[in-house]
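Predict the holo structure. Ligand: zinc ion.
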Amino acid sequence: MSGYLLSIRTLIKLLSYYHYLIRLSVHCFNIIKIRFPYIILILKVYKKYIKILTMRVGDVFKTYADFEEALSQYKKSTFVDFYIKDSKTAKSQIRRYPKLANSSEQLKYYYVKLACVHGGSYRKKNSCQDLRSTSSMRQGCEAYIYLIANAKGDALELTRMNDEHNHEKSETLFSHLPNQRRVTPQEKMEVLELMKLKANKKLIQHKMQTKTGKVINLKDIANIYTTGKTPSHNSLSEIVEQLQNTYNCTVEISADSDQNLIGLFIQDKIMQNTFKAFPEVGNIEVYWKLDVYF
Ligand SMILES: [Zn+2]
């Protein structure tokens, strides 16, 4: 009898256990049903994110633009930059590889090898007389990505890759690389306009950085000005002529053996008279790192 009662108790326990399980399942099902669109969306985003962030051997791209888009995301997420080190266009290789006859123009390359911008080593030539300190990004990094047209010739396939970089990777360093600092023609025009209005270079820098979100150095601003301004027609000889004829100045040009300008001596009428009156007094005016643009 007791054994019979026990089995009933066990049965009740089991039933309540199954009941609990069923309720739990229904509850989970309801959650999934309500959240289904969100779950799908999350999965889609995750899939895209994973697809974009990784670049692996075996990846296939229908067009070079597709690869560029993926590379752009890959660069932003891994903080590394690449440049095209070697390539052959699909057009140039059609005779050699007939499969390329079916390739679309958007494939662009038969093969393309991209190397890390920190690849290669920098050695100053012995013949170089330039004593300025120069900076180079070359650090011997061997990371690269290699794509080649697939067997059908209708897509580019990533067949080889080395993603081991021998240098530090950080968002800050990445944002300071020249490619990321590059400004658009419109942004260049804006900088030039502001420079013409004699705006402060640091304020221009701040404005452009806030507007574009790019890291822009003072050197970049100076380069934009140097390369973008309309060339001056005043040659040195014209300036000397003007100083002598219009302003009655005594002008002497100092040049080295290679005819490189070393200095310019200018003495106007007031200076000449002062020098004549007080030859024993010497005035020295020193300029150090003057900002020539303002
Ligand atoms: Zn590298």
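The longest helix spans residues 2-53. Residues 80, 116, 118, 141, 143, 165, 167 surround zinc ion (CB under 6 Å).
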